[in-house]
């Protein structure tokens, strides 16, 4: 009974896997082999229009029918090749290896065996297996190797093609003449992976790659890897589902079968069979709405942005990529490039001339003659010899300077005192500083804001005459006014 049921279904699966997704030839062949007449749902499924991006799973029922189930047993046989470690520990301990010499296995040997597995879940099971490897040593001596192992299997059991991984342990032994390896058994850690193909509800083909990790020659020398490449055939026992799944229908007749149609009660379009929505209810369908979750306006369905976050929406912001101010959302410019913004620049189209006079109004200007004459060396400012006391005949000159600074309150000056090089430099620097301070004190006492004047004592370090002559030393003893930039 098992054979009569299995063979037609195996052929059906092979034809369905190799043939096109559409067409009626495959279904007709399946119907003939199973002696079951094609039902109306099957014909409707074959005739229904199909999307170019969606495979019609109704025409391949074996994808659902033969997937793993819960509480199923699997019994099987396997065969393949065994690639043993060169440095195995499988030999009889009392052999005199010093006389006999260590015998590694030949590099490849056949492997055969049987296994039994129980799967309480579609994704998890346990298996046990025994096997043999009729091996030879590198000296062509027969050495039969056997394994017994148990392991846990984790698998993706949701279709008829099932990848899996396994992990467990067991033992591996050798039986041979004392002239070869004698008799020995070692424990092993066993792991691997592969995939199964459920060709039929009762027939499974599988491919495994395994590694049995055992002791390396000398035991304390590390681990040895013994690799196996296996192919197997199993049968399943205990399946509960005996009826094929109902054909997949297209409830809303939109060309998308219900198993892939996310809106099976509403006619829809690609990619998911749902109608195009207007999520934000702004009158723009989601397929053209660039901001599908935010209500927006023409032309793209997005709300009007404030790109530069300056409080002016892009539709009224003349400079939407630059933060700006009223009235047009543009930043205040510096038209003449003089570092003074146009809203405070009294001459926005003419660059300021920085010369120490009215440098904050943004307009080009010339130094007034009254101010110009008090730039550089100021003749007529005299002091008592070796002292910082201003001689009275210097007052008229200083009063003229005070008058100019009073008339032009934006002017700031630096007063620099100088000496010749007679005497010690430190004393001359101190004297020049005190003389500059004396001039500042006089001017402050006559109404000039002290904040407009700074002082410096240069001592003999900045001569303008030859200190080797009396005339040159006279030139070097001087007071200079320098305009400060604002």
Write the layout of secondary structure elements.
Blueprint lengths: L1 H17 L6 H10 L5 H8 L14 H4 L6 E12 L13 H4 L8 E13 L2 E13 L5 E14 L5 E16 L6 E18 L2 E13 L7 E15 L131 H4 L3 E2 L17 H13 L5 E6 L6 H21 L7 E7 L10 H7 L1 E6 L3
Parallel strand pairs: 10-11
Antiparallel strand pairs: 1-2, 1-8, 2-3, 3-4, 4-5, 5-6, 6-7, 7-8, 9-12, 10-12
Helix pairs in contact: 1-2
Would you write up a description of this structure?
The protein is of the alpha+beta class. Among the domains are: 56 residues, no CATH class; 166 residues, Porin (Beta Barrel); 115 residues, 2-Layer Sandwich (60s Ribosomal Protein L30, Chain: A), CATH 3.30.1330.60. It contains 9 helices and 12 strands. The strands form 2 sheets. It has an 8-stranded antiparallel beta barrel with strand order 1-2-3-4-5-6-7-8. The chain has a 4-stranded mixed beta sheet with strand order 9-12-10-11. β7 and β8 form a beta hairpin. The N terminus is likely disordered.
């Amino acid at each position: 009974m098992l054979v009569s049921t299995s063979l037609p279904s195996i052929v059906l699966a092979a034809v369905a896997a190799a043939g096109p997704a559409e067409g009626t030839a495959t279904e007709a062949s399946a119907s003939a082999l199973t002696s079951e007449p094609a039902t109306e749902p099957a014909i409707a499924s074959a005739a229904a229009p199909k999307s170019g991006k969606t495979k019609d799973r109704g025409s391949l029922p074996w994808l659902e029918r033969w997937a793993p189930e819960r509480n199923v047993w699997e019994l099987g046989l396997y065969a393949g090749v065994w690639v043993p470690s060169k440095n195995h520990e499988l030999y009889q301990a009392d052999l005199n290896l010093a006389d006999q010499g260590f015998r590694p296995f030949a590099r490849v040997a056949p492997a055969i065996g049987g296994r039994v597995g129980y799967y309480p879940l579609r994704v998890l099971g346990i298996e046990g297996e025994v096997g043999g490897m009729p091996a030879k040593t590198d000296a062509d001596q027969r050495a039969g190797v056997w394994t017994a192992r148990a392991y846990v299997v984790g698998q993706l059991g949701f279709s008829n093609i099932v990848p899996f991984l396994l992990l467990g342990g067991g033992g591996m032994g050798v039986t041979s003449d004392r002239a070869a390896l004698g008799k020995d058994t070692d424990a092993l850690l066993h792991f691997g992976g592969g995939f199964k193909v459920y060709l039929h509800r009762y027939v499974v083909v599988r491919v495994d790659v395994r590694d049995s990790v055992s002791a390396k020659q000398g035991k304390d020398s590390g681990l040895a890897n013994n690799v196996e490449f296996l192919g197997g055939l199993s049968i399943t026992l205990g399946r509960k589902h005996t009826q094929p799944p109902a054909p997949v229908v297209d409830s809303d007749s939109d060309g998308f079968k219900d198993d892939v149609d996310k809106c099976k009660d509403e006619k829809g379009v690609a990619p998911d069979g749902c109608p195009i929505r207007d999520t934000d209810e702004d009158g723009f369908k989601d397929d053209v709405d660039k901001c599908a979750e935010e209500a927006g306006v023409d032309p793209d369905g997005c709300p009007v942005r404030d790109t530069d976050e300056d409080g002016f929406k892009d539709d009224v912001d003349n400079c939407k990529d630059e933060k700006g101010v009223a009235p047009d959302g543009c930043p205040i410019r510096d038209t003449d490039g003089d570092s003074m913004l146009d809203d405070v620049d009294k001459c926005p189209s003419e660059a300021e001339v920085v010369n120490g006079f009215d440098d904050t109004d943004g307009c080009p200007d010339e130094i007034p003659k009254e101010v110009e004459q008090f730039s550089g060396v100021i003749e007529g400012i005299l002091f008592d010899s070796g002292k910082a006391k201003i001689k009275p005949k210097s007052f008229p000159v200083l009063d003229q300077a005070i008058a100019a600074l009073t008339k032009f309150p934006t002017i700031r000056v630096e007063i620099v005192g100088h000496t010749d090089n007679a005497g010690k430099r430190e004393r001359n620097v101190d004297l020049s500083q005190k003389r500059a301070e004396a001039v500042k004190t006089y001017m402050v006492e006559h109404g000039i804001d002290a904040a407009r004047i700074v002082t410096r004592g240069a001592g003999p370090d900045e001569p303008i005459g030859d200190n080797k002559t009396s005339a040159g030393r006279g030139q070097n003893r001087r007071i200079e006014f320098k305009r400060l930039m604002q």
